[in-house]
Amino acid sequence: MLNSVTPTAGGLLISEPFMMDPNFKRSVILLTEYADIGVMGFILNHQSDYLLGDVLPDVSYSEIPVFTGGPVAANTLHFIHRAPEKIEGGIELTDGIYWGGDFEQVKELVSSYQLNETEIKFFMGYSGWTPEQLSGEIQENSWLVTDKFNSEMLFNSNDQQMWKQVIISMGQRFAHIANFPENPQLN
Questions:
Q1: Which of 1, 16, 49, 133 is 20 to 30 A from 108 via CA?
Q2: 5-38 burial by CB neighbour count: b if 16+ within 10 A, else e?
């Protein structure tokens, strides 16, 4: 096993460098739930082709990108944020990062340009596992797990570089993984 950190809500899953599943290739996933009934999270670094105005035409500020949260329930919209003083009802996951909250309030704040992509991320769909399924995948070294990361990176990183930055932030033991090629045959 690559690391021994136990996954928890508010922690990150980082895909191993050669994962072939296109849903999770070079993914960084923020876990929002880790319970006996299941595990849920959102892929933070797979931006979709959609902007918020494409999925919510009644919201006038449409420039906020929408991310592919995962392959489950791809027709649902979710969000995380770091604006608890603006959005009521969110659940704090870790270090000032919140999941959900008053959606009508969010739409009003976005429409009036009082929220931007450095404060909120939207996702279509989510990623989900049974606890046993995820444990098995971690045992097979499909995922790295960390609960120590700079939350600033989740909102301000270049999405193409986030996977690499998170791995490097895990320390010297893992930093070399960040330079592995996507296709090992090209090495």
A1: 49
A2: eebebbbbbbbbbebeeeebebbbbbbbbbeeee
